[in-house]
Specification:
There is one protein chain. The protein has eleven helices and nine strands. The protein has 275 residues and is α/β, with parallel strands linked by helices. A hairpin with a 2-residue loop joins strand 1 and strand 2. The longest helix is centred in the first third of the chain and has 15 residues. The N and C termini lie far apart (70 Å). A seven-stranded mixed beta sheet has the order 5-4-3-6-7-9-8, with helices on both faces. The protein is elongated and about 70 Å long. The relative contact order is 0.11.
Length: 275
């Protein structure tokens, strides 16, 4: 039977040959998950022999990863803003880039906030836990809402979940803040995506028409309807959509601005509703 150290080395070799970008780290994460331990346990016990059941689980996880399945869907977890969220193929994997949206939204999160298209609930639960505010979180997918509810039950926060398209089921002028990480990847860019994204993450949460702009006009209109005067809209964007999406925030929208991520790309748009 292999030792932990040997299992990590063999797994890293297999993953490297399969094209994994960080094969040793991935092997460590998968082995730790298979053993029900954290990675520090692997470093402290490299000579320990794997049990038969540990080897079986590890082998299965390696096989899934080599076939392109994201590590987060194998372990069913992803850290976001210092908390461990559970994820599944029903929801988009939370990205570090979306933490920029949290940073912009936190100072605006007073009263009631609405998270449109909550997915895993990462944004809604984070805002609720960080501020104590009440959050309404919507999604059109019942499977996504089930995942979001699981995260809320584990992590806490006052979040109410509503199955609806965008915010259609919510009343007018019910929110002080609207946040959203909508689909914004152009369908034309599908060939440029990493296979683990293109082939495994939910397309409904990724793609928004040929130019990536299919959802933004609807989202901005819904935000204007549900926001109280003086309320804020904070939403994520990408390089291809930032300029066009920002151009929608005119008229009664005030103080519209785009904010860059650490790489210098536009990542978050915000504006104040002042009819």
């Amino acid at each position: 039977m292999l030792t932990i150290g040997q299992a990590v080395a063999q797994g890293a070799a297999l993953l490297g040959a399969a094209g994994d970008g960080v094969p040793r780290l991935t092997a460590e994460v998968l082995l730790a998950f298979a053993l029900g331990r954290d990675r520090t346990y692997l470093f402290a016990h490299p000579e320990q022999e794997l049990s038969t059941i540990g080897w079986i689980h590890y082998g299965r996880y390696l096989h899934e990863r080599m076939r392109g399945k994201p590590v987060q869907y194998i372990t069913r977890r992803q850290e976001f803003y210092g908390r461990e969220f559970r994820v599944s193929p029903a929801v988009l994997i939370p990205r570090p880039e979306t933490e920029h949206l949290i940073e912009r939204a936190l100072p605006r999160c007073r009263g009631t906030a609405v998270d449109i298209g909550t997915g895993s609930g990462a944004i809604a639960v984070t805002l609720a836990c960080e501020t104590g505010a009440g959050i309404l979180a919507t999604d059109v997918s019942m499977a996504a809402l089930r995942q979001a509810r699981e995260n809320q039950r584990r992590l806490g926060g006052r979040v109410e979940f509503v199955k609806t398209n965008l915010a259609e089921a919510l009343p007018d002028a019910c929110a002080d803040l609207v946040v959203s990480n909508p689909p914004y990847v152009p369908r034309a860019a599908i060939a440029t995506l990493a296979p683990e994204v293109r082939d495994h993450e939910p397309h409904i949460a990724l793609f928004a028409g040929e130019d990536g702009m299919a959802v933004y006009p609807l989202l901005v209109a819904e935000a204007a309807r549900v926001l109280k005067p003086g309320g804020w809209l904070v939403m994520e964007t990408g390089v291809e959509t930032a300029e066009s999406a920002l151009a929608l925030l005119t008229g009664a929208w005030r103080e519209a601005a785009a904010h860059n991520d650490l790489a210098g790309f536009p990542r978050v748009l915000e504006a104040r509703w002042a009819p």
